[in-house]
Task: structure prediction
Amino acid sequence: MKPPVQRRLRRWSGGWLRGADWQPSPNQNARPVGERIRLAVIHSISLPPGEYGGPAIEALFHNRLVPTAHPYYAGLQGLRVSAHFVIRRDGRLQQFVAVDRRAWHAGVSSWEGREGCNDFSVGIELEGLEGQTFELVQYRELNRLLRDLLHAWPLDAVAGHEHVAPGRKRDPGPGFDAALLTAAAALRKPPAWQGPHAVSSGENSKH
Result:
């Protein structure tokens, strides 16, 4: 039996990844002039929490989420957020913001002394519930996406939302298996789950 062949890198078109499902969000703006993209931030999202496959994530990122459609949505009314990418449970890749633009995903955050991670990061949402496990096909697509990003942008590191906003955010949480993040080996720094930024279980439980 022949060894598996690594899938080819995909091409970029003005910050958009060919092969992804493009769904441009209005919730984005320009990065600071001269800012280098250096970090990938991994999040988890499901709307409503624990329910997968519906249109609510797209609705949220396009400011079309109906607050009366589910009790949870009332707390999201008026929220203006986005991410560059969403990886669905079946491995389907969606892109909402061009990589060379700033998506609104990290909020109040910092990384290695730098405030405002949105300025210099790429936001990647995994469809899933904070603290729960993710599908193998999602890890495969995440690794492929990281390789595609690294081919075009000099990323230094990958971290969870929990690392750049500790105490405020806890995703993707303990269900994320960083050992499956094989593409991170090409980064200049180890993944935050393995380095000095690692969040202990006690810290991870804070609200």
User: Anything to note?
Assistant: Residues 1-5, 200-207 have pLDDT under 50 and may be disordered.
